[in-house]
Prior knowledge:
Blueprint: E1 2-6, H1 8-16, H2 22-33, E2 37-42, H3 43-53, H4 59-70, E3 73-76, H5 80-88, H6 94-105, E4 110-112, E5 125-127, H7 129-134
Parallel strand pairs: 1-2, 1-4, 2-3, 4-5
Helix pairs in contact: 1-2, 1-3, 3-4, 5-6
Amino acid sequence: MRKIFVDTNVCLDLLSGRKPFNKAAEVLFSLADSGNVRVYVSSLSFASIDNVLRSQYSAASSRQILGKFKTLVSVLSVDSKTIDLAITSDFNDFEDAIQYSCAIENNLTTIVTRNIKDYKKATIKVLTPETYITKPE
């Protein structure tokens, strides 16, 4: 089974219905739902997603959305080693450095994000959702 790390922005596209990006996110996560790909996200993503969803929904609704979302993904821990790698990385954006370090620590070779430019220093594949769904690994 193909395994990918999905950045928070793509998760938010799906969960908050951000147009026009939600369409590619829906296709990507339907691949996960049908068992064609295993999607990994960092635990950090859940906090970020909740912060955004709470601007649209109540706290209870946000938690309900997160609970359903969790059934589609495998959650990876952000631990001390992940943070150390992010701190010493060349990434300008610290959150992206954490996401990248989390993917690397878990031996994932593809990150799916809309922020390709923030991953210029990546040593693994970095693809947009559109590119991934049209040309999977």
